[in-house]
Amino acid sequence: MRRTAAAVALIALLVGAIAHEAGAATARPRLTPVVVAPVSAIPPTGVVGTDGAMHVLYELQLTNTQGVAAPLSRIEVRSIDPRGTVAVLEGAELTARLRRLDNQPVTVPAIDPSSQLLLLIDLTFPTAEDVPVALQHRITFGPTTTTPQARTSTEARVDLNSGAAPTLGPPVDGANWVITNGCCSPLSPHRTAILPTDAGLSVAQRYAVDFRQMDEAGRFVVADPAQLASYPGYGVNVLSVAPGRVVSVVDGFADQPPGVTPAPGTFAPDTNEGNSVVVDLGDGTYAFYGQLQTGSIIVSEGDRVRRGQALARLGNSGNSQSPHLHFHLMTAESVIGADGVPFVFNRFGYSGQIDPARLAQSGLQGTYGDNRFPVPMTRARQLPLDLAILDFVASPGSAGNPLA
Question: Partner of 189 at 20 to 30 A CA spacing, among 6, 98, 252, 335?
Fold first, then answer.
C-alpha cells in the first residue's frame, strides 16, 4: 500500500509522541517508602589493590519514610554501562554492612519507622576495564503492615570516576610494615567512622590505614608489652608522601600507655588520632598523619615539605592502644569535614599477608614471620590491602633507601 508524504509525516509524529510519553513516564519520579541516596557527592574512584583487583568503595543512606519498620531482604548492585549484576547483598552479608547513624551495627536488616540506616558498599572488579561507568541499586523491602507484599525499586544512581588514584611515596621507611584496619572490610573502624557535620555526613577515613611494624622475627612486641620501646615501629621517622604545604599541626597529647584504652570522651572526633599533621598536596587532596609521638613534630603550619622529608616520629597518642601511624588522604583540611579518597604507593616490596584468623587469636603478642614470603615481590602503583606486609626499602645492595 502506498503512503502519501502527509501520511508518513503523520505516522512519524504519532510515533514520536508515543515515544515522548513513554520516556516521560520512565523519567517521572515515583513515590517509594524507602528512599536511597549516595552519602558522598563525589563520584567513587576505583583503586587497584595488592590482590591485583580494582576496588570501589562508597556508602548509601537508606531512609524509611513510613511509620512502620521496613525490612530489607536484598540489595542488588547493577551496572548501567554495561548492564549487568555486580553484587548481591542479602542475609548475613547485608546485615554486616548496615550501620545506624551513630555508627553502631544492626542485628536485624530492617530500617526502623521514620529512621535511616547507612549501607557500606565494597565492590571488586577483575581489571580497570571491568569497572562500569555508573551503578544503580535494586532494593527489595517489606512486607510491612502497610505494604502487604515485598516491593522492589531501582534507585540511587552512582556515577564512577574513571580517573586514577593519586600516587604517593612511602610514609615510613624500612621493612616488615603491616597494614592494619585497612581496605576493604566493612568491619574496619576506619570504614565505619562516618561523622555528622554541618556539611553533611563525612567519610574522611574511607581508605585510612594503620602502619604497624614487626621485627625480623615477625613480632609486633619484642619485650614488655607495657613499654612503648618494646614496639619496633615506635619512634621511627614519619615521611611526607608528596610535596606540599603544611596546613595543620596538632601536638601536646601524651603517648598512651600500650594496652590501655582511653576513657570514652577523652578525645573529640577531630583529635581522636592524637598528635597529627595535615599536608595540602596542591591537587585537591590532603595527606593526614596521626598518632604521632608527642613533641616530635618538626614542621609548622605554612612550611613547604618535599617528598620523603621527615615530619615527625611514629607514636601512640590519641585513641590508640599500641604504637602505629594512622594515614589517609582526604578532600579537605579538616578530618571531620572531608571525603576520603583512595591512593596507591609508587613502589614497595610486598611480602604476603598476616593470617587474619591467627591474628584474631594471638593478637599483637603472636609471631608472624612465617607469613612472609622468602623474597618480597616488587609492586607498583597499588593500594596495600588489610594485613599486607610491606617493605619500603630497595634491593639489599641499597637497603634503607625509600623506593621512589
Answer: 252
Backbone φ and ψ for 172, nearest 5 degrees, come out as -145, 165
Alpha helices in 194-289 (DSSP H): none
* Stretch(es) of the chain classified as CATH 2.70.70.10: 167-398
Q: Please give the Cα distance from 111 to 99 (Å, whole number).
A: 10
Question: Which residue, among 155, 169, 190, 144, has the nearest Cα to 319 in the 3D structure?
Answer: 190
Q: Which amino acid is at 185?
A: S
Cell numbers for 305: 615539605
Mind listing the pLDDT tens digit of every residue in the chain (404 residues)? 444 444 434 334 343 443 333 343 345 667 778 899 999 989 999 999 999 999 999 999 999 998 899 999 999 999 997 889 999 999 999 999 999 998 899 999 999 999 999 999 999 999 999 999 999 999 998 776 666 778 888 889 999 999 999 999 999 999 999 999 999 988 889 999 999 888 789 999 999 999 999 999 999 999 999 999 999 999 999 999 999 999 999 999 999 999 988 888 889 888 999 999 999 999 999 999 999 999 999 999 999 999 999 999 999 999 999 999 999 999 999 988 899 999 999 999 999 999 999 999 999 999 999 999 999 999 999 999 999 999 997 434 333 333 33
CATH class of domain segment(s) 34-159:
mainly beta
Q: Is 143 helix (H, G, I), strand (E, B) or coil?
A: coil
Residues spanned by CATH 2.60.40 within the chain?
Answer: 34-159
Give the H/E segment covering residue 21.
helix 5-27
The C-alpha cell that represents 393 in the structure block: 626499602
Measure the CA–CA gap between 382 and 165, rounded to whole angstroms.
Answer: 9
Q: For residue 401, what are the contacts with CB-CB under 8 A and spacing of at least 6?
A: 393, 394
Report which DSSP code applies to 215.
Answer: -
Q: Please give the single-letter amino acid code of residue 288.
A: F
CATH topology of domain 167-398: Glucose Permease (Domain IIA) (2.70.70)
Q: For residues 379 and 277, give the distance between their C-alpha atoms in angstroms, rounded to a whole number.
A: 27
